[in-house]
Specification:
Layout: H1 2-30, H2 46-67, H3 77-95, H4 97-103, H5 107-118, H6 133-147, H7 150-159, H8 161-169, H9 180-204, H10 209-220, H11 238-252, H12 255-262, H13 266-270, H14 273-297, H15 301-316, H16 331-343, H17 356-374, E1 384-387, E2 390-393, H18 396-422, H19 427-438, H20 454-469, H21 471-493
Antiparallel strand pairs: 1-2
Helix pairs in contact: 1-2, 1-3, 1-7, 1-21, 2-3, 3-5, 3-8, 3-21, 4-5, 5-6, 5-20, 6-10, 7-8, 7-9, 9-10, 9-11, 10-11, 11-15, 14-15, 14-16, 14-17, 15-16, 16-19, 17-18, 18-19, 18-20, 19-20
Amino acid sequence: MREREYLITRYRAILSYSGVVLMLGGGLILTPLAGLAAFPGESRLLWAFAAPGLSLGVLGALLWRGLRPPAPITVSVQEGGVIVLFSWVAVIAFSAWPFVVALGLSVPCALFESVSGWTTTGLSVVDVTRAGNLILLWRSIMQLAGGAGLAIIMMSSIMGPAGAGLSVAEGRGDQLVPQVRRSARLVLLIYSAYAAVGVLLLKLAGMSLFDAVNHSFAAVSTGGFSTYPESIGHWDKVSVEAVILPLMVLGNLSFVTAWFMWRGRRKAVIRNGEVRLMAVLVPLSVAALFLFTCRKLYPLLTKSLRVALFEGVSALTTTGFSTVGYGNWNSTGILVLVLLMLIGGGTCSTAGGIKQFRIHALWKFLAWEVRRWLSPCSEVRENAVWEGDSRVFVRDDRARQVGVFVFLYMAVFATGTLVLCACGFNLSDALFEFASALGTVGLSVGVTSAGMPAPALWAETVAMLLGRLEFLVVVVSVLKISRDLPSLLAGRSGR
């Protein structure tokens, strides 16, 4: 009985803290209605947003007020994972409502679009040429909020004791400063500054204010939703690409690295393993794309260089914006993009993928192992990497965690590719599309659409969610709930 009473107390706190996130999610669903001032002709969509927004907000308030513990409870990382999983699933489900009402999408397609938005993937089943401005704005708002883990950051600011466990559970364990609340506010400040400056620069580059808002939100969140089917290629302007490129890179950087940049701590930025890896990967991948693919397809030297640079950076940062289609690309170009999408962006950033720190760590592990074989047995070795401004010595358990994650990531990638192949897509397209979904990238060769087979649609939906929350959080949270549920129900069955 004591175990059951303890679990009841913990899960009441979990549901109560989840209620705060649901209230925030409900408020976010209402935000597109502010656009009615600019687009009064879309007033018919009022209840498409008001109904799910108010419903989610009321549900969150009931959970928060009805189950709030008498004294603040500090949640563990496992419990934080349960809050993150429950909150994300609930917010995603309610966020799909406007797509069903406004566009008439089926529930699976609406959920796909919602998941793609909140996970900052950018794969879409919506025909943007027929979607209203409020729907387009809602897609961008989802990406802006999902990119920073805004619900979790806001909860860190509000809840205090719950904050640290939630941040770690969502894959953002590093803090800018020791205090959770102040760290969360600094992240919000940096993120908001990126978006605001992006809007201004894109407006100056030739976009309308509406397009500038949407594309700035999608760029800094490394999301990739666009208001046009051709994405950034709709403008085909150097000035627009020159603004989008640094926004994608900034969104790719860890918020900790961004904080060091803001404070002028160049040495901490330069010796960061992720920054060094990116400094190598970008030139190599751009050179490969230019020499083996783009130079043959685009006769103008400037155009081929622009395409190679933009597509390479977009894939590595997992943003998913594009300036061209890939229907005429050769296998070399497709393979380079697949590899970049698998590597992904920086840890504790808005980007997805395996993450650059893990790739950097694997390279260091290989170098250390080779050095161990070539060195005398009596030699004492110090294996360390730089994390922020600290030199961290890497133990075997850290190496094991990285190895397990990469193995699990590639196993899911192989399984998802097999599902797409079984649905009738060729291997090249299946590899590309599932790498994009799992890495929360958003680049597409045309596989993803509202008419794709249901197994492929659901496989990509699950992949996007796993890729955003990272596998171990989802797996551990599901296992924890499965383990605790029998004990929670034991008392009821015994009555």
